[in-house]
């Protein structure tokens, strides 16, 4: 028994290594994989699959990644394909975009997306707009990835969510994985996509293990960009979220289920292009909508969902105004009690749901 | 001062006369470059074949006429928005191209028409892009600052942003082992952008085959180099990289310097800087008359003493590589070509509204793009 739990605790690589030795065994139906390992696996597989793929960023090589997401990759692929950069976001993001224009498929890591602001001109003006400006002559197959949004105790300059900023821009694809399956499938889709894709990870999710279904263990497992996933079916209210808050929504749903309220929880997975159809179909079934995000309320993801719901067929099915749950409209404070109250908590989601349902 | 072009450059006849009475080749002494961190620079002599001479002449004359035609069309309101002309700087775009091959790569700023032409875009496609017609090289969707061709990455509107991009193109050359180099052009104004220092650093660290080319035309918009830069020795700006300062009004100097620089990169020695001392006759753009921050006398002096086309013409005629009559014929042909291109550019159809939504994403199934209100939708095809 002790041996079995020790086995489960090892990293996926070691486990799959063990499995390979047993020729007559098939892969287990499910496996526990952390979000960090899922991203690592996804990148590893794509690096192996296509020689033009490479990773650059601060500390991605010899340090194994500031958050250890790229652990083991430099050892396996070497200096040519896993490149440590100086602290020069604007410079190395531009270099990555230029490399993509000239035939490579870079993964450009921002240590956190807060630092991407230094480089945002390269992301928007050099990457996102170029295919359009060139009337299709110049594609830019690049991935910008890194942790986004609130962490724990890192204060205002290190806690901003960029989903709305990047989601605003035509020419970009923007994804926001929640669990391990999302993380692996979306990073692989992003790398294979011939467009600039922004992958908004979450630092607090890196260490969280999830069940990894059999199909996710395949080297060709992809989560399509632009499609939301219904994580939990329900009939009374639609709750839409992305990234870490999806977990909070599921917790809220579990609590409410005991009170007889069944929430349909939708994991957006992609911010742009947004799968509004899945949300509309759900709202037409439940007649109620709550959006949940970590970012600031003004001009945010929830605001966009509400605007689009108003414009579409689902509006006439709403029995109450759509409601948003967001981060507090302040720069992130440091003290724990202040920080805790600046991000959406499960109780805030439950409260919003009950208000919407008038219960 | 390097730009004061003095004296005739007399060529020596090194080969017998051909049937038509022209020399097939001539050798010219060219101004030596200022060197930084280099033991040796480009050669002090340039050999020029008749064929190359005619080609450089025709190219420079075409760029000149094309830019002047664009000036005219802008004033007639066929061209809108920004229009940054490079007349005066023809030796740069033609000389740079002469020093590399189509397998190499080039990226530049918004003053891109001449470089785009040198990289293979036709006058027709350039002028029609300026007038925003479907026959434009970007189907009218890019405009003056966003023209692309094979191994030519624009045309970039954000000052200095093209420099890290160029270093990235060079990284791809190194990674893929093509042996190609990337000429990464920027101006004296852009030289003060922080991201350029970042690009120098990474290019040097990784020995990227990137030639950083600073086209120093002495003014960044209305600000002279002295008012913007604590040091105007732009070729020394990456103090850990070698540099050359070149007479950018002499197409042969530019060619030799480019060959030298490209060879330096190709041989694995890493990046270097090339500063081309040049001059633009027009203001910064069509909305700048260009005389509030510099005197008309200065502009006139450059035209009469340092004009790149005139310099090449003098050489060609005095060394019998060509004749005044032959060059006049070329002028007439170029004039006709540019006129016809302008005709096309002003008569071609504007893009259909259908294309408004296209080219958002590459290799993606068609989808719908929102217009000015929720009922207006455009189909988006890759």
UniProtKB/TrEMBL annotation, chain A:
Keyword annotations? Carbohydrate metabolism, Glucose metabolism, Metal-binding, Mitochondrion, Oxidoreductase, Potassium, Pyruvate, Thiamine pyrophosphate, Transit peptide
Mention any one GO cellular component term assigned to this protein in its UniProt record. mitochondrion
Q: Which residues form a coiled coil?
A: none
From which domain of life does this come?
Answer: Eukaryota
Entry GO MF terms: metal ion binding; pyruvate dehydrogenase (acetyl-transferring) activity
A single Gene Ontology biological process assigned to it is:
glucose metabolic process
Group of enzyme by EC: oxidoreductase
Q: Which cofactor does it need?
A: thiamine diphosphate
Q: Where in the cell is it found?
A: Mitochondrion
Q: Give a yes or no for keyword Metal-binding in this entry.
A: yes
Q: What is its EC number?
A: 1.2.4.1
Q: Main location per UniProt?
A: mitochondrion
Q: How does it assemble?
A: Heterotetramer of two PDHA1 and two PDHB subunits. The heterotetramer interacts with DLAT, and is part of the multimeric pyruvate dehydrogenase complex that contains multiple copies of pyruvate dehydrogenase (E1), dihydrolipoamide acetyltransferase (DLAT, E2) and lipoamide dehydrogenase (DLD, E3). These subunits are bound to an inner core composed of about 48 DLAT and 12 PDHX molecules. Interacts with DLAT.
The function of this protein is: The pyruvate dehydrogenase complex catalyzes the overall conversion of pyruvate to acetyl-CoA and CO(2), and thereby links the glycolytic pathway to the tricarboxylic cycle. The pyruvate dehydrogenase complex catalyzes the overall conversion of pyruvate to acetyl-CoA and CO2.
What's the protein name? Answer: Pyruvate dehydrogenase E1 component subunit beta
Q: Which organism is it from?
A: Chinchilla lanigera
């Amino acid at each position: 028994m002790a041996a079995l739990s020790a086995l489960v605790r090892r990293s996926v690589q070691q486990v799959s290594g063990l499995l390979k030795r047993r020729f007559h065994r098939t892969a287990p139906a499910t496996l526990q994989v952390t979000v960090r390992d899922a991203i690592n696996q996804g990148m590893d597989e794509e690096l192996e699959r296509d020689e033009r793929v490479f990773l650059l960023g601060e500390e991605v090589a010899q340090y194994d990644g500031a958050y250890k997401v790229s652990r083991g990759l430099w050892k396996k692929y070497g200096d040519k394909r896993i490149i440590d950069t100086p602290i020069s976001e604007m410079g190395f993001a531009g270099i990555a975009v230029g490399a993509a224009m000239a035939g490579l498929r870079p993964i450009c890591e921002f240590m956190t997306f807060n630092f991407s602001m230094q480089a945002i001109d390269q992301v928007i003006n050099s990457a996102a707009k170029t295919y359009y400006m060139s009337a299709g002559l110049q594609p830019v197959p690049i991935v910008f990835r890194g942790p986004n949004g609130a962490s724990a105790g890192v204060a205002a300059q290190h806690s901003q969510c960029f989903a709305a900023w990047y989601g605003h821009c035509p020419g970009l694809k923007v994804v926001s994985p929640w669990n391990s399956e999302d993380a692996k499938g979306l990073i692989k889709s992003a790398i294979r996509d011939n467009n600039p894709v922004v992958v908004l990870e979450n630092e607090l999710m890196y260490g969280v293990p999830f069940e990894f279904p059999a199909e996710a263990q395949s080297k060709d497992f992809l989560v399509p960009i632009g499609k939301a996933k219904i994580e939990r079916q329900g009939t009374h209210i639609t709750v839409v979220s992305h990234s870490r808050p999806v977990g909070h929504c599921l917790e809220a749903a579990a609590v409410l289920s005991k009170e007889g309220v069944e929430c349909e929880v939708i994991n957006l997975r992609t911010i742009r292009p947004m799968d509004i159809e899945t949300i509309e179909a759900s709202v037409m079934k439940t007649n109620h909508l709550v959006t949940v995000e970590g970012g600031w309320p003004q001009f945010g993801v929830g605001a966009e969902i509400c605007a689009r719901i108003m414009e579409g067929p689902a509006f006439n099915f709403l029995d109450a105004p759509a409601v948003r749950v967001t981060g507090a409209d302040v720069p992130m404070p440091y003290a724990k009690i202040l920080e805790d109250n600046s991000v959406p908590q499960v109780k805030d989601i439950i409260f919003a749901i009950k208000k919407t349902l008038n219960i | 001062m390097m730009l004061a072009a003095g004296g005739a450059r007399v060529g020596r006849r090194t080969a017998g006369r051909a049937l038509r009475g022209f020399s097939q080749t001539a050798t010219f002494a060219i101004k030596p470059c200022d060197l930084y961190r280099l033991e040796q620079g480009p050669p002090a002599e340039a050999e020029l074949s008749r064929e190359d001479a005619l080609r450089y002449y025709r190219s420079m004359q075409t760029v000149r006429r094309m830019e002047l035609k664009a000036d005219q069309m802008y004033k007639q309101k066929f061209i809108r928005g920004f229009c940054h002309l490079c007349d005066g700087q023809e030796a740069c775009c033609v000389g740079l191209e002469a020093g590399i091959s189509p397998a190499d790569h080039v990226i530049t700023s918004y003053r891109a028409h001449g470089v785009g032409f040198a990289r293979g875009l036709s006058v027709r496609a350039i002028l029609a892009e300026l007038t925003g017609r479907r026959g434009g090289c970007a189907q009218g969707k890019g405009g003056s600052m966003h023209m692309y061709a094979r191994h030519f990455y624009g045309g970039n509107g954000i000052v200095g942003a093209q420099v890290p991009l160029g270093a990235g193109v060079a990284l791809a050359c190194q990674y893929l082992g093509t042996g190609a180099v990337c000429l990464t052009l920027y101006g004296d104004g852009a030289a003060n952008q922080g991201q350029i220092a970042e690009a120098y650093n990474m290019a040097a660290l990784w020995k990227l085959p990137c030639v950083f080319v600073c086209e120093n035309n002495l003014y960044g918009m209305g600000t002279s180099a002295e008012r913007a830069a604590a040091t105007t020795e732009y070729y020394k700006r990456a103090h850990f990289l070698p540099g050359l300062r070149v007479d950018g009004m002499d197409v042969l100097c530019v060619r030799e310097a480019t060959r030298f620089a490209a060879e330096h990169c190709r041989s694995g020695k890493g990046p270097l800087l090339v500063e081309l001392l040049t001059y633009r006759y027009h203001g910064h753009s069509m909305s700048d008359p260009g005389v509030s921050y510099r005197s008309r006398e200065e502009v006139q002096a450059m035209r009469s003493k340092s004009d790149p086309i005139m310099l090449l013409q003098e050489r060609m005629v005095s060394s019998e590589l060509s004749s005044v009559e032959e060059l006049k014929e070329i002028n007439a042909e170029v004039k006709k070509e540019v006129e016809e291109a302008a005709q096309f550019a002003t008569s071609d159809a504007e893009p259909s509204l259908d294309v408004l939504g296209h080219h958002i994403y590459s290799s993606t199934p068609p989808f719908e793009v929102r217009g000015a209100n929720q009922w207006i939708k455009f189909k988006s095809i890759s």
